[in-house]
Amino acid sequence: MSENPIEVKQLVKTYGDFNAVDGLDMVVHRGEVFALLGPNGAGKTTAVEIMVGTRTRTSGEVSILGEDPGKDRRAWRARVGVVPQNTADFAELTVREVVSHFTAFYPNPFDPDELIEMVGLTAKSRSRASSMSGGQRRRLDVAVGMAGRPDVLFLDEPTTGLDPEARRQAWDLVRFFKERNVTTVLTTHYLDEAEALADRAGIIARGRMRQVGTLSELTTLAGHTTQVICDPIDKDEPRLPKELAVPFNDHTGRVSLATDQPTRVVQELASWAKERGHDEVPGLIVKRPTLEDTYLALVSLEKTE
Ligand SMILES: Nc1ncnc2c1ncn2[C@@H]1O[C@H](COP(=O)(O)OP(=O)(O)OP(=O)(O)O)[C@@H](O)[C@H]1O
């Protein structure tokens, strides 16, 4: 099993009599950004730690770049980048020293200054890691994880604690690597992040992959439809086009239509409004379900099963 850079079959990790990972299956294709989503304690970090070889497994098969991560091979390790969940403690070393130290481990590393620039720490290059903010240290973690110019990158909540601008810069880095065909597994609780970056996402709950697919496939699984919303054109005119007829939304007084054919609905609304002397449908909004809507629906489905 080595067609894909990441293949996991029936992975189990047991602590005492508790299965933190409980038969996890996961495949990530070459060059893909795969978002690993799931509630706290679902088993994401445990699974990632097994995939990068820092935790042993109880059973199951894992192949990362064709190798079993349980067998520590130096050449393999150089091709696997890891940004762990917890920020590392680099004591009194400067940013430049930390990055140079890690790049020196690898056969084909980034140039330290280029890497420092990529994570936006050039101005802090000579500062001690211990004097930096939490967000700046997180960027240093990212630089360390990428030092070896990896083919596969595991990012465990890489943007936790970053300000909005730094988050966007971290996203640009993920895209930078994607353009270079790096396969990336991104564990995150920020669903906008998964939405912005991921080709596919998997939702883990209770140690098992519950749903997996492109974001639009997940949306379909959750049974979500697009909402077309507008202001009522005339409160005394109850008739919407026949096939659009729905009650006005009680809460806001607006018209809200759930549909999987938003283009048709908007066309119908537009001609209906025009017949009533409106060139524009007042207050028109077309709202696609977000990954957050989908995630919450899928996770609550899991809980009721
Ligand atoms: N060393 C350990 N010993 C015992 N139980 C553990 C150990 N490490 C993790 N667990 C348990 O395994 C489960 C999965 O933990 P894990 O950290 O993998 O979850 P997660 O999905 O990454 O959660 P989060 O989103 O909160 O980071 C949790 O119930 C956790 O308490």
TrEMBL record:
PANTHER family: ABC TRANSPORTER ATP-BINDING PROTEIN. It is a peripheral membrane protein. This is ABC-2 type transport system ATP-binding protein. It comes from the Bacteria. Keywords: Antibiotic resistance, ATP-binding, Nucleotide-binding, Transport. Pfam families: ABC_tran (PF00005). GO terms for biological process: response to antibiotic. One of its GO terms (molecular function) is ATP binding. Residues 6-231 form the ABC transporter domain. One of its GO terms (cellular component) is plasma membrane. It comes from Propioniferax innocua. InterPro entries: AAA+_ATPase, ABC_transporter-like_ATP-bd, ABC_transporter-like_CS, ABC_transporter_ATP-binding, P-loop_NTPase. It is found in: Cell membrane.
